[in-house]
Design goal:
The complex is a heterodimer of chains A (284) and B (254). Chain A is mainly alpha-helical. Chain A has a single domain, classed as ABC transporter involved in vitamin B12 uptake, BtuC (Orthogonal Bundle). Chain A is built from 13 helices and no strands. Chain A starts with a helix and ends with a helix. The C terminus of chain A is likely disordered. Chain B is of the alpha/beta class. Chain B has two domains: 172 residues, Rossmann fold; 74 residues, no CATH class. In chain B, helix 3 crosses helix 4. The N and C termini of chain B lie far apart (41 Å). Classes of the chains: A mainly alpha (284), B alpha/beta (254).
């Protein structure tokens, strides 16, 4: 049994509190945008965006620029570029996304081989570094969460109609391209900002899994969006707590690499929650 | 002078490399019912989708309630509110968790920037009234994915009438319904048309229904072959021009 007192003590440390808050902000944003992402069948898009972000990071490292500075502009440009291609291609969406993200990953690995920090930093790039979340990151996440909430809140009905039936929305005067672009930009910013904490491999899990769980539990669209955001935040909290508990349970000999343990925990927590909720839904 | 709801002038639309609709002009008066008839691939859906701004047009003008539809499909929001559109086969992803009440509510909303709880009481009242009007009040909390074909059409009519409209555009609206469902749909549609004073522009393959109910018919096969009252526009000569002479022989034998 994990020692509860020690978990509480751990969460009194400032870096743990920043990590927890960062996780909650990321979870809320990922869940909120994720609810529309999965319905618009953009799950693979967010996955491809996350994986391809490694290319942005590697370009930053190669040019000697802070990867965090390169990451967000890269994610937005990449997302808009991919959207442009998807609108014009005759290929299947998932096939094109596969080509793009495989190519990006391959180029990123080649680029990283030219960079000195490659070997030491790969784990952090792949699995993130939530304990290294700074106050500035939290401020940026909070601002982005506010922007997402205002945008989704004020255009909720438009987003609903657009998701349900594009032609009906256009007939009502909705500018599909404007809304699509705004959504893609927000999604790419959320994915980009979450990569530092969650890593390129698992970032789409925060977008897709809470929304899928919420879909199984919801009977109305509005509840679905709210629940998805809530489950995103809850998954982050559970992930952190489970990781902290696991850290102490395995003993102090593993302290040498606490970051890895955190990310292993964080990655599995949403999946665990999801499974539990799936079961709950089946039982109900 | 007649109150013109819709005016289309010299409209030409290209779909990729071919001309789908060429030099079509007509107008629609308030409270009247106009049917567009023609064979498959005649450009009927293209025509109505262009009028709504869903598809771009190459030349020509469209005026709805006196306001021009821009080349990029922009029309003043106040005018958009006066139009309702029912697409051919209302196909949607059945996994989307949206209830009947939420769908009908989308017909009421102005779809600009607004807080989700704006005019909550008015909105709820309008939804309840619209659903009751199409005899679907009991479906309000159901997911739309669970509705039958007939129920879906009734709910879509509630989506149209939840707010007062001037123009209803239907693209083969009863498609997918059986004979009885189709008859019930039209009965309800015309009852509502009388009450609401809608002008209707509809695509139809049911020439008997068109003869019975419509004031005006447009025969389309890429170009507008004829227009007028059903007696004139659906004469054997005009039908032969639109569908080919084989169609007339077939139609008379049945």
């Amino acid at each position: 049994m994990p020692d509860l007192t020690r978990i509480i003590e751990l969460f009194q440390l400032p870096f743990m509190q920043r990590a927890l808050l960062g996780g909650i902000l990321t979870g809320l944003m990922g869940g909120m945008l994720g609810s529309f992402t999965i319905l618009r069948q953009l799950s693979f898009f967010s996955d491809a965006l996350g994986h391809s972000a490694l290319l942005g990071i590697s370009i930053g490292l190669l040019l000697g620029i802070n990867p965090s500075v390169v990451l967000l502009p890269f994610a937005v440009c990449f997302a808009l570029g991919v959207t442009y291609l998807l609108e014009r291609t005759r290929l299947w969406t998932d096939a094109l996304l596969n080509i793009i993200y495989s190519s990006s990953l391959a180029i990123a690995i080649i680029t990283l081989s030219f960079v000195g920090q490659y070997k030491g930093g790969l784990n952090n790039l792949l699995f993130g570094d939530i304990l290294a979340v700074r106050e500035l990151d939290l401020i940026f996440s909070a601002v982005l969460l506010l922007v997402c909430t205002v945008f989704i809140g004020l255009t909720l009905r438009t987003q609903m109609l657009l998701t349900l039936h594009e032609s009906l929305a256009i007939a009502r005067g909705v500018s599909v391209s404007l809304h699509r672009t705004a959504f893609i930009v927000l999604l790419s910013l959320v994915v980009g900002i979450s990569i530092k904490a969650i890593g390129v491999l698992l970032v789409s899990a925060f977008v897709v899994i809470p929304a899928c769980a919420a879909r199984l539990l919801s009977r109305t669209f509005t509840n679905y969006v709210v629940l998805s955001a809530g489950l995103g935040a809850l998954s982050a909290v559970i992930g952190m707590v489970v990781s902290a508990a696991f850290q102490f349970a395995v003993g102090s000999q593993h302290c040498g690499n606490p970051v890895d343990n955190f990310f292993n925990g964080n990655g599995t927590a949403p999946t665990t929650c999801f499974r539990t909720w799936v079961k709950a839904d089946v039982w109900i | 002078m007649q109150d013109i709801v819709l005016s289309v002038e010299h409209l030409t639309v290209y779909r990729e490399t071919f001309v789908a609709v060429q030099d079509v002009s007509f107008s629609l008066a308030a409270g009247t019912d106009t049917a567009i008839v023609g064979p498959n691939g005649a450009g009927k859906s293209t025509l109505v989708q262009t009028i709504l701004g869903i598809l771009p047009r190459q030349t020509g003008d469209v005026f709805i309630l006196g306001q021009p539809l821009s080349r990029r499909g922009f029309l003043a929001p106040a005018i958009r509110q006066q139009i309702a559109y029912l697409p051919q086969n209302f196909l949607f992803d059945r996994r989307i968790p949206i209830t009947v009440e939420e769908l009908v509510g989308l017909g009421w909303d102005k779809l600009g920037f607004q807080v989700p709880w704006a005019n909550r009481r008015k909105r709820r009242y309008a939804i309840r009234e619209a659903l009751a009007r199409v005899d679907a009040a009991h479906l309000s909390h159901q997911l739309i994915s669970g509705l039958s074909g007939g129920e879906t059409k009734r709910v879509l009519l509630a989506y149209c009438l939840v707010r007062p409209r001037r123009l209803l555009i239907l693209d083969e609206a009863p498609a997918g319904l059986d004979v009885r469902g189709e008859s019930e749909f039209y009965q309800l549609l015309y009852q509502l048309k009388r009450e609401q004073g809608w002008a209707i522009l509809q695509i139809s393959h049911d020439l008997d229904m068109v003869r019975r109910n419509c004031d005006r018919v447009l025969c389309l096969n890429r170009t507008l072959l004829c227009q007028g009252t059903p007696e004139v526009a659906l004469s054997p000569d005009n039908l032969s021009a639109a569908y080919g002479s084989e169609f007339i022989r077939y139609h008379h034998q049945h």
